[in-house]
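Saturday, quiet lab. Running sequence design on the structure tokens for the scaffold JK sent over.
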């Protein structure tokens, strides 16, 4: 792999914000003199996301777009990881809710030998509804207690990995929203170097997921991973 970074954004019905936010991201990466590619991974979108994604990729050689008919950001993550051209793999939310300076700091840390960089809203500053913060904190506490993990943020966005370090764990990637926990757990278990840094986050819209369904799903997956860890 050549030096540079892959910025990955999972997409689900993002027709309203997709083009403007990809342009904003490109401008930021170019201002930082990065060699980069942006991979846009639609999973289950049924609006005009695919039309906009294909148009962006057609007009810019640094953008790749793919569409998976089945919804699942973990599925999109795994597909993007297989397509990545660069050794640094940065995950971002489509609304770019996290300060983009995370990209530079994470890239520098990965270049120094870390396998993963966890961007933590809890350690930094966040402008989010109180109930969402409390729900996240409860899940983080449960995850850390059951899996003996120390991290303060398991959301999809603001995470960065050395591509070669996580490729061996493709079979462990959850198809939906639990894949961050799975990856960090596997990396930690196999001696990977992980560092957590504060990030600034501002929610610019409501969650794209049914939060009750998400809670049931994630706690179910957490218990499953915990039971598997007891047998090892």
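Result came back. Writing it out in full:
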């Amino acid at each position: 792999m050549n030096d540079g970074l892959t910025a990955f954004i999972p997409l689900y019905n993002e027709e309203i914000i997709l083009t403007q936010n990809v342009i904003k991201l490109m401008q930021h990466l170019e201002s930082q003199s990065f060699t980069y590619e942006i991979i846009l991974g639609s999973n289950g979108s049924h609006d005009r996301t695919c039309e906009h994604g294909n148009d962006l990729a057609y007009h810019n050689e640094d953008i790749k777009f793919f569409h998976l008919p089945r919804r699942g950001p973990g599925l999109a993550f795994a597909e993007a990881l297989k397509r990545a051209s660069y050794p640094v793999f940065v995950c971002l939310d489509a609304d770019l809710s996290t300060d983009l300076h995370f990209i530079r700091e994470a890239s520098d840390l990965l270049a120094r030998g870390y396998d993963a960089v966890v961007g933590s809203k809890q350690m930094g500053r966040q402008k989010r509804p109180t109930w969402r913060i409390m729900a996240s904190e409860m899940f983080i506490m449960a995850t850390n207690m059951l899996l003996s993990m120390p991290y303060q943020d398991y959301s999809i966005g603001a995470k960065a990995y050395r591509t070669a370090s996580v490729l061996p764990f493709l079979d462990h990637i959850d198809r939906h929203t639990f894949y961050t926990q799975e990856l960090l757990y596997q990396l930690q278990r196999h001696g990977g170097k992980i560092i957590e840094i504060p990030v600034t986050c501002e929610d610019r819209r409501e969650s794209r997921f049914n939060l009750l369904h998400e809670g049931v799903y994630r706690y179910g997956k957490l218990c499953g991973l915990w039971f598997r860890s007891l047998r090892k």
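Notes for JK: Strands lie at 5-11, 36-43, 63-68, 88-91, 116-127, 159-162, 194-202. The mean pLDDT is 92. Ask whether to fix the surface positions before the next round.
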